[in-house]
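Notes from the 1:1 (GR / supervisor)

We went over the backlog. Supervisor wanted to see one worked example end to end before approving the batch request, so GR pasted a single chain during the call. The sequence is below; no edits were made to it. Supervisor asked that the structure be written out right there so they could see what the output format looks like.
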Amino acid sequence: MYFQTAIRLAAPVAFFGYAAFANIALFQADVEGPHLDGFVKGGFTQDVDTLYRANLPHREVAVGWVGAARYVLLNEGRKGVIAGEKGWLFSSEEFRAQDPDQIGLTDTLDWIASVQEQLSKTGTELVIVPLPAKLEIAQIHGGDAEQAQSIAGTYDLFLAELAARDIVTVDTRAALTAETAAFFQTDTHWTSAGARTVAQTVAASGTIEIGVDKFTRTDLDPIHFTGDLVSFVTSEELAPTVGLTMETVTPYVAEMVANDEATGTIDLFGSDGPAPIALVGTSYSANPNWSFAEALKLELAQDILNYAEEGQGPVAPMRAYLETLDPAEAPPIVIWEFPVRYLSDPALMDSLLPTNGDDNV
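Structure output shown during the call:
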């Protein structure tokens, strides 16, 4: 208890000690400082920020070392990450309160119902694929069983409420739980194995008819990368020294091959057939490294058009898709990949708010 308290106090003391040294070095250097007229024109703060970013010595190195020490000694990171056990990191988004009234779940569900209604008018069926939280699936490494069960309850409630509104869903929890490597240790996303498992679950659910298209899988070169949660702990260079090693994924593509029965040849460009299924969602679907769209092609034997977007959550990409949808070219099915961790985001529905172009005038 006393040791942890001492460490928590020592880290900021060391950092501020360094800050004092750095400021002395900075202002003794021959650099241009902020202009006093910035107080009047409103640019003083920006000038100071630019000064420090451009000239503060060893800033990134110091932040990295302090973060590494805090992680090793206290198993903690900065705001945005929660450190689990044995090198596992989790987004703090999964540790938000899960009270349905507090997170505005009803408003989200009502909008989802309106999406289904709009799509049904074009003859399109909506299939929602909720994704359980990494904290729930990997709770053995999370160190917070109570929060894992809380966000698992949100997943259950989400499925139940969607069913009550007659919205088709695919329950992916059991399959992801059974997959030993469904999520990366130091990244918020699923692995290609997790994505493939969900694609197989969608195909086995019977909600979407299996097609007749044939695809061949081609593996691409393996990619080694630093998980997106590591930056909340320490620098990329120091991460391996504290046990946060690089992740590896092998993306793949699924290429359609149509058999021309008339000539017995292979048409590499495919043939005219039913309209492709549309996929809408988050970076789980948008990032080609996870190969979710490719896995769906292989498992459903149908072509997939990917409208998912990175960094936008699940709501904004669906709104963008609906705004550009041509009813004459509507797909038979829209698959909506929807991670439940976003349901507790207070800004989830903000993309639906009207914007005022005169706000900054």
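Supervisor's comment: The radius of gyration is 25 Å.
Batch request approved.
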